[in-house]
Specification:
alpha+beta, 2 domains, two-stranded antiparallel sheet, 37% helix, 10% strand, elongated, disordered N terminus
């Protein structure tokens, strides 16, 4: 009997999701004065919740749904860093691997830096460029990922590699 209850409990969503998630998010929107958000909760490779809350536009009051796209800015670094840390943990790569191992032809302004730069260097922003130096160079362009990677060599560092 205990085993059956335990097995059945795993098939259901956690109680927090069943009875408090909507309340928690709705209150959070009010408390933080956030117009809207969307959320996805994935457990064991299966989507448990995918839903929008609030509005995507404060003037038109158009609602947020599970397909609303948001500009996430630097939050993508969190996801990228977490994914890379998981890959390192699973021994699929090392943060000390050279970037060129995965991005063939990756070059920076300086040839020596190009040969030395690691995944860790990219994650910790130690290429020698100033804060925001390259952030807006390709902003809102129609350039593809490979075109942006190819243009990294145009950003002349103003500081010393791995020191700033």
């Amino acid at each position: 009997m205990i085993c059956i209850l335990g097995c059945n409990a795993q098939k259901k969503s956690p109680s927090f999701i069943q009875d408090s998630l909507d309340y928690y998010i709705t209150e959070g929107l009010k408390d933080w004065n956030i117009p809207g958000l969307s959320i996805a909760i994935v457990k064991d490779g299966k989507t448990v919740v995918m839903k929008g809350y609030g509005v995507r536009d404060i003037e038109t009051k158009e609602p947020v749904d599970e397909n609303t796209l948001f500009m996430i800015a630097s939050n993508s670094k969190l996801f990228t860093g977490t994914a890379l840390a998981q890959l390192e943990y699973n021994e699929k790569l090392s943060l000390d691997d050279k970037v060129g191992k995965y991005l063939k032809g990756y070059t920076l302004y300086d040839k020596n830096t190009s040969e030395l730069v690691t995944i860790r260097d990219l994650l910790s922003h130690h290429l020698g460029t100033r804060t925001f130096q390259g952030d807006f160079v390709f902003w809102n362009s129609n350039l593809g990922r490979q075109q942006i990677i190819n243009r990294m060599k145009l950003l002349k560092p103003s500081e010393i590699f791995r020191q700033s």
